[in-house]
Amino acid sequence: MTSHPAILVDAHLEGPRVRLRPLRPSDGPVAFGLLHERPEVTRWLLGFSGGGPRDPDELTRLYTHWIGGSPEAGVNYGFAIEFEDEGMVGSISLRFEGHPGVGNVGYWVGSDFWRRGVATDAGRLVALLAFEHLGAWAMTAEVLEGNHASARVLEKVGYVRECDFQGQPLVGRICEGDRPGWTYGLTPIDLERALPKEYAAKIEVRFS
């Protein structure tokens, strides 16, 4: 196990339902079409002030570099989620900055593609990447209070809720402004227990 994740220069992951590939600038307009005026999605996003992207250019700039951070501080990656023949239907990030060895995951899926196992498959693939290829020993995720669908996704992957809070936190507090939420954790053993026996993944990585 390394003290910080090895740096990927390319990665392609394929599960039973989805494919993950590095984000690229041309994904900006596609992602904007999936998010713009979709409050059922943007209300749960932690990464955008005001609930969502203001224009396609904001996402294009965000997706210009799929790798962020540094080897010393921890490296972050952003992936496009592709589903069947639909192309990009969402994105998922794997972040190590500030906590090398502990990956933090965040994701969204366009509402037209909910309830098809997209987020669950993407979450499993990213966890396998983190544990089997990047030297991670744990994963974390945050869910805003009330986002029960996202909580179910994490629990299917194998995440365990580590703290609840309604006013007084048990362990920690996750919030955007005054928005409370839940913290989840995942270990390799948790993932192994939750993975279906028939689950098959193809992960191709290239390191610097």
Plain-language structure description:
With 208 residues, this protein is an alpha+beta fold. The chain is globular, with a radius of gyration of 16 Å. The model is unreliable at 164-172 (pLDDT under 50). The protein has helices spanning 27-35, 39-42, 56-62, 118-133, 148-157, 188-194; strands spanning 8-14, 18-22, 67-70, 74-83, 88-95, 102-109, 138-144, 160-163, 165-166, 168-169, 181-186, 202-207. The longest helix has 16 residues, at 118-133. The strands form 2 sheets. Strands 1, 2, 3, 4, 5, 6, 7, 8, 11 and 12 form a 10-stranded mixed sheet that branches. The protein has a two-stranded antiparallel sheet with strand order 9-10. β9 (165-166) and β10 form a beta hairpin. Helix content is 25%, strand content 33%. The chain contains 6 helices and 12 strands. α1 (27-35) crosses α3 and α4 crosses α5 (148-157). It has a single domain (8-207), classed as Aminopeptidase, CATH 3.40.630.
